[in-house]
């Protein structure tokens, strides 16, 4: 199908749509109907109206409202970043939120500095003692995990908290610092208006099965492999 500009006798720009051949003088001769820009706009509008009707019907069919268990996992960068972005949205809607960091050390990250500006709208607990390869002490890691889980249960029992980020909980469960059955059962028994976001690679199958939403971050390219170090404002 060929589309070429065509000037009608009245000067309107149109298009000829159809087959074409060359006449004996080398000029293109087109066979087909002529459509105007107005025709194309009419078709586009009808197509979008049909699409909107389908979308509206699909949205209207969704009637359930509930607290979600959301899991961010995978080997790619951005799991915690996405969780804190979601928290920012919730804070913007006036929610009280909580954070429990399981595996990361007690350094002051950029997101913590920013979110703490919301004052008592956020309750933040950093109870990990660093990555497992830094502590090199399994019993210390288990004890830190238990303290973090106790803080989690306290936040879950607070009726004013509407969203909780459990940062690196998946790593804690991967190394069996907590019992996965106990943790997942408690998360499933959350209040109906409480959203919980769990981050960390290697999410356990039990966590994935229990979740309402699971996103896997897939690495495609990372600057660290090219020798670029972790940078303020990007990694922390």
From TrEMBL:
Keywords recorded for this protein, A-Z: ATP-binding, Cobalamin biosynthesis, Cytoplasm, Nucleotide-binding, Porphyrin biosynthesis, Transferase
Annotated metabolic or biological route of this protein: Cofactor biosynthesis; adenosylcobalamin biosynthesis; adenosylcobalamin from cob(II)yrinate a,c-diamide: step 2/7
Membrane-spanning parts: none
InterPro entries given in the database record: CblAdoTrfase_CobA, Co_AT_N_dom, P-loop_NTPase
Similarity section: Belongs to the Cob(I)alamin adenosyltransferase family.
GO cellular component, one term: cytoplasm
Pfam families cross-referenced by the UniProt entry: Co_AT_N (PF12557), CobA_CobO_BtuR (PF02572)
Lineage: Bacteria, Pseudomonadati, Pseudomonadota, Alphaproteobacteria, Hyphomicrobiales
Main location (coarse class): cytoplasm
Alphabetized Gene3D superfamilies for the sequence: P-loop containing nucleotide triphosphate hydrolases
GO terms, molecular function: ATP binding; corrinoid adenosyltransferase activity
Catalysis: reaction(s): 2 cob(II)yrinate a,c diamide + reduced [electron-transfer flavoprotein] + 2 ATP = 2 adenosylcob(III)yrinate a,c-diamide + 2 triphosphate + oxidized [electron-transfer flavoprotein] + 3 H(+); 2 cob(II)alamin + reduced [electron-transfer flavoprotein] + 2 ATP = 2 adenosylcob(III)alamin + 2 triphosphate + oxidized [electron-transfer flavoprotein] + 3 H(+)
Subcellular location as annotated: Cytoplasm
GO biological process, one term: porphyrin-containing compound biosynthetic process
ATP-binding is among the record's keywords: yes
Leader sequence residues: none
The protein's enzyme class: transferase
Protein name: Corrinoid adenosyltransferase
PANTHER family in the record: CORRINOID ADENOSYLTRANSFERASE
Limits of the Cob(I)alamin adenosyltransferase N-terminal domain: 35-59
Task of the protein: Required for both de novo synthesis of the corrin ring for the assimilation of exogenous corrinoids. Participates in the adenosylation of a variety of incomplete and complete corrinoids.
EC number assigned by the record: 2.5.1.17
């Amino acid at each position: 199908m060929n589309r070429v500009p065509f000037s009608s006798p009245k000067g309107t720009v149109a298009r000829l749509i159809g087959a074409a051949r060359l006449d004996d003088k080398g000029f293109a001769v087109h066979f087909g109907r002529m459509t105007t820009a107005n025709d194309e706009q009419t078709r586009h509008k009808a197509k979008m109206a049909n699409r909107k009707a389908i979308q509206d019907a699909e949205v209207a069919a969704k009637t359930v409202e509930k607290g979600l268990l959301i899991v961010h996992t995978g080997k790619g960068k951005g799991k915690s970043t996405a969780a804190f972005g979601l928290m920012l949205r919730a804070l913007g809607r006036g929610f009280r939120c909580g954070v429990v960091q399981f595996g990361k050390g007690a350094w002051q990250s950029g997101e913590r500095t920013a979110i703490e500006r919301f004052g008592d709208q956020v309750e933040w607990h950093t109870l990990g003692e660093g990555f497992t390869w830094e502590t090199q002490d399994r019993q210390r890691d288990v004890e830190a995990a238990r303290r973090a889980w106790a803080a989690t249960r306290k936040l879950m029992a607070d009726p004013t908290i509407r969203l909780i980020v459990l940062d690196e909980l998946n790593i804690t469960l991967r190394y069996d610092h907590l019992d996965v059955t106990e943790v997942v059962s408690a998360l499933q028994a959350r209040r109906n208006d409480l959203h919980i976001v769990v981050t960390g690679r290697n999410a356990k199958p039990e966590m994935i099965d229990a979740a309402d939403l699971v996103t896997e971050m897939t690495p495609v390219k990372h600057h660290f492999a090219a020798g670029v170090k972790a940078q303020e404002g990007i990694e922390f």
